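Inputs:
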Amino acid sequence: MIELKDVCKFYQVGEDRVRALDHACLHIYPHEFVSIIGPSGSGKSTLMNIIGCLDVADAGSYLLDGLPIEQYSENQLAQVRNHKIGFVFQSFNLIPKLSAEENVELPLIYQGVKRAERQQRVKEALRRVGLEKRAKHLPTELSGGQQQRVAIARAIVTNPKLILADEPTGALDSKTTQEIIDIFHDLHAQGNTIVLITHDNDVAKQASRSVHILDGRITEVKL
Amino acid sequence: MLSFKMALRSISANKMRAMLTMLGIIIGVMALVVLVSLVSGATTSVTDAVSDLGSSLISVTVSDDKGAPVTLETLEEWMDEEELGLIAPAATDSVTGKHEGEYDSVTVYGTTPAYYEVQDLQLSMGRWLKSTDLDNHSYVCVINETAAAELIGYTDCVGQTLSLDGVEFTVVGILSDDDDSLTAVFSSGSLVAYIPYTSLMRLSDSVTGEITSFYVAAAEGSALDVAEARMEALLLERFEEDEDAYSISSQDVLEDAMSSITSTLTILLGGIAGISLVVGGIGIMNIMLVTVTERTREIGIRKAIGASRGTILTQFLIEAVVLCMMGCCLGIFLSWAMLQAVNTVVASTGMAFGLNGGVVMIAVVFCFLIGVVFGLYPANKAAKMKPIDALHYGG
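Outputs:
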């Protein structure tokens, strides 16, 4: 599913060249629920950007579902993100002007899905996260947990190969955190591949496999 | 359609700002539409007035007859041409008119009965010259009201005698001074007498049987330019294909001059108004740049979930164009309202100003282009953003 081989990423900070990822190798298989854990500054976000095709590596190779991502153009990457990846962010990243269902609909619009099918799939996605009653609400009218559930609905509406969650519970209290984690468990049970990035050991433990990242190097950990 | 709805929503999210931005376009469109409509409205009424001055006339001057002079008989022959109507010679001389001690300079025209109709003159009294007057070299004259008043003292002076350079002429008719005809405009206040062409030949040394100047009317139902072309062909034939031997002109020239003046005026005013539209477009560009910066995060989100460069570009471009076109529509509506107001004010003068369809089209097309041109840079800036940079913007 995901095959990272010797991936390096550098950042130029002033005169220093910071190595955010140092020959990182990672294999994730279909239907796995993997958590990536590491303290801030460890290269987590960089790894997530590369796995999520938001950024490309400076060296090494990355195969996502068999596609050689490092060779892709910007627009092709947009296509890959649209069809293969569902994002869940720490700060929800919903578009404030659009209602819950419109936010969920957006990736389908970009795919060019027909209106009738869009509405049906949006309804289904919102039902899966238990928010069908809040479809018409704007993000500002929803609680943090509800907003994150809208974001999850937006991530799953395209039936992506991979759900990529970056600190999805970072902005939530422990009770809502558990609710969100439960949703991820449900999605995993339904056969989705999930990669969850976090700095919280308790959250990381929920995954079936955990990977540790420190100073740009990846090590497998057993919890 | 969907992106159009999204654009409307983004615009309505900030109504005050959208309104102020549109104001530039609204003022530009109003300037363009109102000014050009006013000019074209005024042009219509001025052109009407000019063509009222009489324009169904061709005037011909012969400078070199090449041994084939034009005579009264030639004119008779030409009058038989299908395209040509009446033809009247007009020889002029200046003489001293005298009546019971009063004397003044009088312009004498030697002509034929046809002149009356060719020039569309109006008698106020008496009769016009007859062909018998011409055949008999009669000493009869038709004078204008000015001449009657100046020399004889009163205007109902038919039957009085008038001495022109010492030769006694009987006044047989009085012409009313027609303020509307072009000749009247140019000769107002002057003393004019019309006498038979043959009589003028005797009176004046400079006038002979060789006619050097005459007027041609188009045949009934025939256009002036058709008649002019035929006349030109006849003259070329007669004068050995020498275009310099004669000159031919019609009063259409005046209308042509008028319309070239007004079209220059239209282009000038339109150009000035166009500049204000461009300024409005810069306002649109400015606000779109602000919008793009404000919505950096939104752009990042959209890109993360799969919007391509083109999608983002189209979204912001449509927003700019919609903003422009809304301004354009409002501007056209306000222009219409303004012209209605002007119409009410100038109702008494008989002028009427309507929206000029052509300029409305131009305004719409121009606004669209401005939307595209000035929207392109901000939209491209949005489209070029890297998704990670945009996502992490402002937190």
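Remarks. Chain A is about 35% helix and 30% strand. Residues 174-189 of chain A form the longest helix (16 residues).
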